[in-house]
Design goal:
This protein is mainly alpha-helical. 66% of the residues lie in helices and 0% in strands.
Length: 185
């Protein structure tokens, strides 16, 4: 019979696929640790329906939850001390993957969902490049400048949904609507 995989091996496999945040990895590992402790099949939802059949199955499930959380936290601590799990690397990876398509607001929001703050130097770099990135994103989606108020609103909604600030959107659309300069010869 095949031995079940350890939490450490699962974590290393997930980290080999891509950088993970501690929060995200903890959630994924808990999904595997709890059913093992309770004796329920994978996908167990932890609502108390998969206890060991004792007098108080809810107490068994709560004890299993606590033990699973402790086990997962120990694995995460080991991964961090060994350098396999890094909040800085995750943030850098996420920013690099998103910077060509999204604005600062969207990138910061995604990182906050993983409970990670952006480093000050990365924050400055993003702020310095947001206008250029917004111009490039608008130009890829809309090769022509907005010809009407409706088209201008459509482009503004698109850029806003991509996480660019309102000031950046206004400036990009103002520049796009301007007639091209003719250089005096």
């Amino acid at each position: 019979m095949k031995q079940p995989r350890t939490l450490k091996s699962r974590a290393l496999q997930l980290l080999a696929q891509r950088e993970q945040s501690r929060f995200e990895l903890r959630r994924k590992l808990l999904a595997h640790a709890l059913p093992r402790r309770v004796g329920a099949p994978a996908g167990f939802d932890g609502t108390g329906s998969g206890g060991s059949g004792a007098d108080d199955p809810d107490a068994d499930v709560e004890g299993a939850r606590i033990a699973a959380a402790v086990e997962v936290d120990e694995v995460l601590a080991w991964l961090e001390t060994q350098g396999f799990l890094s909040a800085e690397r995750f943030a850098e990876s996420r920013v690099n993957a998103r910077v060509g398509r999204y604005g600062n607001l969207r990138i910061r929001h995604e990182l906050s969902q993983h409970r990670i703050a952006l480093a000050p130097e990365a924050e400055r770099t993003l702020a310095d490049t947001e206008l250029d990135r917004a111009r490039a994103v608008r130009a890829r989606k809309f090769p022509q400048p907005p010809a009407s108020a409706g088209e201008r609103a459509r482009q503004a909604r698109f850029l806003g949904a991509r996480g660019f600030s309102a000031d950046t959107v206004r400036q990009v659309l103002r520049e796009a609507s301007r007639p091209p300069r003719s250089d005096p010869a």
